Amino acid sequence: MIGITFALPSESSDFVRQLRPVENVDGLVFGKIGDRDVVVVHTGVGARNCNERLEILLHKAKPQFVITSGFAGAVVDQLRVGDLILAENFSEPNLFGLAKEILRDQNARAVKLFTSTSIIDSFEERNEIARKSGAAAVDMETGAIVATCNAHGMPLLSLRAISDSPSEPFPAPMSILFDLERQRTNYGRLFAYLLRHPASISRLTRFSGEIARARTALTEAIVTLVTKI
Question: Which of 172, 195, 208, 229 qualifies as a FRET site for 59, CA 20 to 30 Å off?
């Protein structure tokens, strides 16, 4: 059994559609990729709920190891939307080495990942993270997931796809695109913003297509890992 974490169903949707059969138990999604048993858990965005949901995953599913997955934002210009990254600083060395070799043809980049306690929105914030931490990308969950897995002696691999970068930022402020407290988009707030900034509509449409391509690349990478690792 391989445990796989995503922050939100919008990140896991392509992957979950490939599972056969699918069974939902206590917020866990069980299924198979080929002959490999997998279980998916959604942690939510940010560290607040990660510990509780990881504990459910580890105690009820008892996976052999965990792949923590989803999207991350680039803080350096060398990464572009859709690029795959393996977080060397958060991954168990043996799993990291295997994954790097397996995903060589998919150009997965070995980088340092930084986990932030808040949404990173501005160009200045990205630069500051890159300068202080030496990281190439940032997310909001992996650090908390690693802490829980380490406490249980659970090997972990961190694999993510880039959703935005300094040269390809979000089409609107993240506070507009996602309500962190409610863990969902506030569509009333988003529509009001688009009415005030109509030029953002085309950027949002383009962004949606880029996210779909990033999700496809991530799904293909996870499927490859699950079947070969």
Answer: 229
